[in-house]
Structures are given as C-alpha cells and as structure tokens.
Design goal:
- The chain has eleven helices and 27 strands.
- The protein is of the alpha+beta class.
- The strands form five sheets. A six-stranded antiparallel beta barrel has the order 1-2-3-6-5-4. Strands 8-9-10-13-12-11 form a six-stranded antiparallel barrel.
Length: 503
C-alpha cells in the first residue's frame, strides 16, 4: 500500500511539473523546424552536371583491376587529389560511357565516345551550366591532364566537351558542350554571404551523380594560402564534389566546391568553396580569350604580425610586408624597398598580405595606380604602373643549415656583427647593412643565424658594426624591437625582445 501511494504521488508530481512547460514547448517548436530544400533542389538540380575525364593509353599498358566494388573512375580523383599519385586503372570497354547510357537523345549521339579510342577513366567531378548555349564551369583540377572530357546531364545525355580555358591559380575551368536551350544556374553575390546561413551542395561524390548535401557557412574569407579567400562550410563535400555549386536558400550559386580538409580523404566537417564573384571574373576572361590576364608589381610579400606592428608603431597588424623587390620591376621603379609595409592599393585597405595579390591581379596591366606604404614611421604614396603577370616560374630556394657560431654574442640582442665590404654590398645591391657573425639568446630564439644581414634596427638604417653596437646599447629590455633582416633574396622584419644585461 505504501509503495502504491508513493507511485501515485510521483506520477502526480510528474504531471504537475510538466504542465507549466507545455506553453513554452509549444512556442519553441517553430524555431526548431529545419529548412525544406526540395523546391530549391528541383530548381537548381537540372543545371548541375557530372564530369568524367579519360586519358588515352596503350592496350599493352593495361593494369590489373581493383578490389571488387571499387570503381576506378569514381576513385581516381581521390588518389590524385589527396595522395598526388594516379590510381592504377583496370581495363575499360573502350569509350563506353558510364551507366550503360550511350548518349541517346537530342544531340547526344554525335558526341558519343569513339569506340576505337583506347581510353580509361582518369577522373570524376562536378560542374554547373552557366549559359544556355553550353558553357559549363568546374574546377581546373577536375579536368587536369584529361585527353577527353565528358559531361553528363541529369536527363542522362552525355556530351564530349571542348576545353575553353583553365586558370590554375584560382582552380577554375570552363568547358563547352554542343547543346542549346540548357537549364542554367542563377549567379549569386558571394559578397552578401553571411556566416551561419544555410547552404546546399550538389555534385557527384565518388561518382554518385546528383547527390545533395546541406549545412551552414562556417566562415568567410578563409585564407588557406591560395590565391583566393575561400567560403568555409560544414556541408558534406567529398572527392567528386569538386567543381559543383554551393547554393544559397534563394537558389543562387555563391561558390564552387573546391577543397576539403581531411586526414583520411573523406568528409570531416570542413570544406572550402571558391567565391562565385571571383570565379565569374575568371570565367568571363576564359570565354573571351582562353586565358586570364593579371597585373603584377613584382614584389615578394609576407604577413605583418602584431609584434612587428607594435615595434614599428603601426596602429594595428595590417598590410603586406615587402620582403624583396624585383630589380627593374614596377615596384622597384616606383621606389618600393624591402621592409616597406604596403597599407593601401588605390585607396583600398590591404588588411592581410593575401589581399594585395588579388587587388593587383584584378587590375588591368598598364593601369597607373597608387600604393600607400609605411616606412620609418610615416606613410608615403607611390605611383606605380601595373605590369602583366607572366606564367609562374619554379625556383628552388637555397636551404642551408645554420652553422654553429664561432663566437658568443654579448649584447642585449644576442648578436655579434661585422662590417660588410663595399664591393660585397654592391654585389648584393645594398646600400648599407652589417653581417651576423654569431647569434645566441634572444636572436637565436627568433631564428637569426650566421650570414644574415641586418639592414635596420627599428626605424634606423645600420651602416656599421660600431653603429649597431651603439644602437643596441640603448634598447629597452621591456619593449620589442624590429630588425630588418635580409637572408638570401628575401627581406623581412624580425621582432626581438632585448634581454636585460643586469645580473
């Protein structure tokens, strides 16, 4: 009886406790509703295509097959993109399109693969139609090294595509198929993207055509070291999604899915998309001329850290630090020097070092522009004429291991320096500087080493070892000092905190 009474009491208490919550739960229910993507997918889906690439191979060079259930065409991009090696291919029926569809339908048969061509699948990806007459945008790495490009529409028609142009710097490519009255995608404005908004990706992960995934924008302007700032999302993007559209809730494409962050090659919650505004600028040039023309001012730059900014009196860490200037280039003619910090280009703030290449690159060669620099505590406006960027040249940096110092430095920076002969300064195209003979303590901790050349201490140019020792003797051990250092062909500021010489 006692047990029953206790149970009745607990039941009544539970009901009573739940009653006040009912109105609150009812009012909160609408906020928990998730968006419905069905209409959006119906609208955009037909403009998304599957892209398959093949390469021609000798029949005698055919390799053994893959494990059962693994399609080499679907997985080749995975190996090539994330491991840097081609996937061993199994023999394919020459020229046979995937899925058993032979390209039937309007305009499909004339573009079907030639059954006499010894081809094997080399990559798979996605793309989207940007004009009704057959222009398709995708990633450059999707069609890299392809002999033949096949575009498959959602209605199963397959076309052999013509390559219009590729821009490796932005990873954008444009191809064209011989078709008309095609469904197109609406181009959005990537500048209006907001962190936290819902977005959708449509593509062919692992060759699974027309796969839809959804998520939110995680960040904007994400600098990954590439030419463009990316849109970061948590949308599930996997190998094969490359080149597909990132779509907002209005059904507009705001980016091209291009990269993923992954330790395994699969989705881990971080994916990156090329902003569509930048991609369309590239696509327009590729369509008109087959190549992209960019401006350059011929400087090598680096980031401005907070320590460097504080040491030089900059209000905040911003701009692009000039590490080297190409002799005879536009910046050299304008008077730019290593150690200058470029704060503005044509009046537009350079917030980070990666902003400058984009600003200059988007400027037509021959244009007269103005760069604002910070030098020795003052700003200067320098006129510069933009030159045309040439194809990248691969250079190998001289990687020399630090040699142990032969003597111990005793000043507050931990540096022992010596004068540089005039003929050596001339050969290095320098007007001043002292050479590091030994580094320990504070200098060694920030990476300075024998052979480095000290050009400036704070805002003061260094012309002799005697002057350097005098400058360092007056440094405040509680404040960072920026040394302008040249190593090889590069020049950069190195912040050092002087040590106290008191015992």
């Amino acid at each position: 009886m006692t047990t029953l009474s206790v149970r009745k009491f607990l039941a009544a208490a539970l009901v009573a406790a739940c009653l006040p919550l009912a109105p609150h739960m009812a009012s909160a229910a609408p906020a928990a509703n998730l968006p419905d993507f069905t209409d959006l997918v119906d609208k955009v889906g037909p403009a998304v295509v599957n892209i398959r690439t093949t390469t021609r191979v000798s029949n005698s060079g055919a390799r053994g097959g893959l494990p059962p259930g693994m399609d080499d065409g679907d997985m080749s991009e995975f190996f090539r993109r994330f491991f840097g090696i081609p996937l061993p291919q199994s023999p394919q029926s020459p020229g046979s399109p995937r899925g058993g569809d032979n390209g039937g339908g309007s305009g499909g048969s004339q573009d079907a693969p030639d059954s006499n061509d010894p081809e094997q699948n080399s990559g798979v990806g996605s793309g989207f139609i940007i004009s009704a007459d057959g222009y398709v945008m995708t990633n450059a790495h999707v069609i890299d090294d392809a002999d033949t490009i096949y575009v498959t529409l959602t209605d199963k028609r397959e076309f052999k595509a013509k390559l219009i142009g590729v821009d490796d710097r932005t990873d954008v490519a444009v191809v064209k198929i011989n078709a008309a009255n095609l469904p197109t995608i609406t181009i959005g404005d990537s500048n209006k993207v907001r962190v936290g908004e819902w977005v959708v990706a449509i593509g062919s992960p692992f060759g699974l055509e027309n796969t839809v995934t959804a998520g939110i924008v995680s960040a904007k302007g994400r600098d990954t070291g590439d030419y463009l700032p990316f849109i970061q999302t948590d949308v599930a993007v996997n190998p094969g999604n490359s080149g597909g559209p990132l779509i907002n809730m209005q059904g507009e494409v705001i980016g091209i899915n291009s990269q993923i962050y992954s330790r395994t090659g699969g989705f881990m919650g971080i994916s990156f998309a090329i902003p569509i505004d930048e991609a369309m600028r590239v696509a327009d040039q590729l369509k008109s001329s087959g190549k992209v023309v960019r401006g350059r001012i011929a400087v090598a730059i680096g980031e401005v850290t907070k320590d460097v900014a504080d040491s030089l009196g900059l209000p905040k860490a911003q701009g692009a630090l000039v590490s080297s200037v190409e002799p005879g280039g536009p910046a050299d003619k304008a008077g730019v020097q290593p150690g200058d910090i470029i704060l503005k280009f044509n009046g537009h703030s350079v917030d980070t070092a990666t902003d400058l290449p984009r600003m200059v690159g988007d400027t037509k060669p021959g244009t007269k522009s103005t760069i604002t620099i910070w030098r020795k505590g003052q700003t200067h406006d320098l006129p510069v004429t933009i030159a045309e960027m040439q194809p990248d040249k691969t250079t190998k940096a001289d990687q020399k291991k630090p040699q142990p110092p032969k003597q111990r430095a005793t000043n507050v920076l931990g540096l022992a320096v010596s004068d540089i002969p005039a003929d050596q300064l001339k050969a290095l195209k320098l007007h001043n500087g002292v050479q590091v003979d030994a580094a320990d303590g504070p200098a060694a901790r920030v990476g300075l080493q024998k052979g480095d050349i000290i050009l400036r201490v704070g805002d003061t140019d260094v012309s002799s070892a005697k002057q350097f020792d005098e400058l360092t003797s007056h440094l405040d051990s509680t404040k960072m000092v920026a040394l302008l250092v040249r190593r090889g062909e590069n020049t950069q500021f190195v912040p050092v905190r002087p040590r106290s010489m008191q015992k």
